[in-house]
Design a protein that fits this description.
about 170 residues; single chain; 7 helices; mainly alpha
C-alpha cells in the first residue's frame, strides 16, 4: 500500500514534468474551510448512518479492516490507519487532484467529474456490493467537492474518515 501511494503521487508528477503542466492545477490549494465544512459534515453524517446500517453485514465484517492485524492490537490499528491516510491522500490526489484538474481545464467540469469517476468506481469492484455501487455516488460527490473547494485535500480527509469509521465499526462488530 505504501508503494501504491508513492505511485499515486509519482505518476502525476512525471506527467506534469513531461507535459509541462503547472503542478498548481492539481488541487494543492484549498479554499477557506468556511466554503466546504458544511458539505464535509453533511456527507460524513450520511455515510456514518449508512455504515451503522450495514456494519453487521458479513460482507463488511469480512472485508474490513483491510489489514487484518489491526483487529488484534491497537498499535497495528494505529500503524494501519496512518498508512491508510497516506494512501488516501495519494489516491485522492491522483483522481480528484490530477485527473480532475487536467480534464477540468481541457474538457469542462462535467466531463472531468465523469472521467475521474470511472477509474474510481472500477477500483471499488470486489468490495462489498453496496460499497461498489455507492462508490459511483461518492465519486460524483468527491469530484464536485474537489471542484468546489479547488482541492483534493478535504475529500481525502473525508474519504479517510469514512474508511476509518468502517474499520472501527467492523472491529467493534466482531
Amino acid at each position: 500500500m505504501i508503494y501504491q501511494s508513492i505511485i499515486f503521487f509519482a505518476l502525476p508528477l512525471l506527467a506534469s514534468i513531461t507535459l509541462k503542466i503547472g503542478f498548481s492545477e492539481y488541487g494543492w490549494k484549498m479554499k477557506s474551510i468556511r466554503v466546504w465544512w458544511k458539505d464535509f459534515l453533511f456527507f460524513y453524517s450520511l455515510m456514518f448512518i449508512l455504515i451503522m446500517a450495514v456494519f453487521k453485514m458479513k460482507s463488511f465484517q469480512y472485508t474490513y479492516p483491510l489489514f487484518k492485524p489491526a483487529e488484534r492490537a491497537f498499535k497495528y490499528f494505529v500503524l494501519w490507519e496512518s498508512i491508510h491516510l497516506f494512501y488516501m491522500l495519494g489516491w485522492e490526489f491522483l483522481w480528484r487532484g490530477y485527473l480532475l484538474g487536467v480534464f477540468k481545464k481541457r474538457a469542462g467540469p462535467e466531463i472531468a467529474v465523469l472521467v475521474q469517476l470511472i477509474p474510481f468506481a472500477i477500483l471499488h469492484i470486489g468490495k462489498p456490493e453496496l460499497e461498489a455501487y455507492g462508490s459511483i455516488i461518492a465519486g460524483v460527490f468527491l469530484g464536485v467537492f474537489a471542484l468546489k473547494t479547488n482541492s483534493f485535500i478535504p475529500g481525502a480527509f473525508l474519504h479517510f474518515l469514512v474508511a476509518l469509521t468502517m474499520d472501527v465499526f467492523a472491529i467493534l462488530g466482531k
